UniProtKB/TrEMBL annotation:
InterPro entries per the UniProt record, alphabetical: GRIM-19
Membrane-related topology note: Single-pass membrane protein
Name used for this protein in its record: NADH dehydrogenase [ubiquinone] 1 alpha subcomplex subunit 13
Keyword Repeat recorded: no
An example Gene Ontology CC term for this record: respiratory chain complex I
Keyword entries, A-Z: Electron transport, Membrane, Mitochondrion, Mitochondrion inner membrane, Respiratory chain, Transmembrane, Transmembrane helix, Transport
Similarity comment: Belongs to the complex I NDUFA13 subunit family.
Protein localization: Mitochondrion inner membrane
Pfam families: GRIM-19 (PF06212)
Purpose of the protein: Complex I functions in the transfer of electrons from NADH to the respiratory chain. Accessory subunit of the mitochondrial membrane respiratory chain NADH dehydrogenase (Complex I), that is believed not to be involved in catalysis.
Coiled coil: none
Amino acid sequence: MQNHFRTLPTPHLFVQRRVQETNMSIQYRQDMPPPGGFDAIKYKRNLPFRGPSGLVILGAVTAVCAYGFYRVGKGNLERRELQREKVWSRIHLVPLLLAEGDRDAYRRQQAALQREREIMKDVKGWEAGKSVYNNTRYRSAESIVVL
């Protein structure tokens, strides 16, 4: 069998070339495109729209966060104002509450004196409301807490 390829020297590389035998003729039919040509090759990606871009999402998140911080700031101002109002209302109520407590203490003291007079009416020399201690040191009225 003969070698159908032979190497031809060229200046920079060797190229192999097919040499046809002169006595043998090859019958072939070339494959041709259809009339009008082939359809275009679809090489582009056909991806549907999948939502907003990353930049749009980032902008939306930034806007929502900014609005949230704005509302938190306004809420803090409102809370601070309500706290200040509560403190001042308590400061202004202190004299009223003290006066009410004093009136209640006086009423209880008078009721206790009346009870003491009623209970000790048969004891000779008993003075209602007089201290049983023999000193002049001031003692506040004893209070009883009823639970």
